[in-house]
């Protein structure tokens, strides 16, 4: 397994994986094949790469997923993670979360949010040790502090 900053060559593959991963959300509460802003745009992912926010996750050099991550001081915000549906329910998501936590050893707090309706991601983040800190009609907000790190 390798977790690394994305390259230009990764962009088309990551975009396709993102599209298929987010389109699969119709099976867990999504109303249509859709996703967060830019989820299906090579240009959006290219912009994230240029700003050092885009990461690639590989297994035996095959790209299986990615992440968009933002750091601010000692906090990390997980903008999104995505795994190819071919690799769902095989532990890769948890391994990706461990890689993210290991990649940023000086982080004191990790924050993320996910749609209220997405039963898969809400269950997943709780399984990884994230605590719900708030929710509104659209999203559930999670945190994990430094003493809890390593999924």
Provide structural commentary.
This protein has 151 residues and is an alpha+beta fold. The chain has a single domain (2-110), classed as Gcn5-related N-acetyltransferase (GNAT) (Aminopeptidase), CATH 3.40.630.30. It is 28% helix and 32% strand. The chain is globular, with a radius of gyration of 14 Å. The model has no long low-confidence stretch (mean pLDDT 92).
**What share of residues are in beta strands?**
25-35%
Quaternary structure state of the chains depicted? single chain
The string of secondary-structure elements, in order, is EHHEEEHEHEE
What's the architecture in CATH terms?
3-Layer(aba) Sandwich
Distance between the termini: 16 Å
Helix content: 25-40%
The poorly predicted ranges are: none
Spatial strand order of the main sheet: 1-2-3-4-5-7-6
CATH topology: Aminopeptidase
State the major sheet.
7 strands, mixed
Which structural class matches the secondary elements?
Answer: alpha+beta
> CATH top level?
Alpha Beta
| Mean pLDDT over the residues | 92
Descriptive terms for the model:
about 150 residues; alpha+beta; Aminopeptidase; 4 helices
Quick description:
The chain has helices at 11-23, 42-50, 92-103, 119-127, and strands at 2-5, 54-59, 62-72, 75-83, 109-115, 131-135, 139-145. With 151 residues, the chain is α+β, with helices and mostly antiparallel strands. It has a seven-stranded mixed beta sheet with strand order 1-2-3-4-5-7-6.
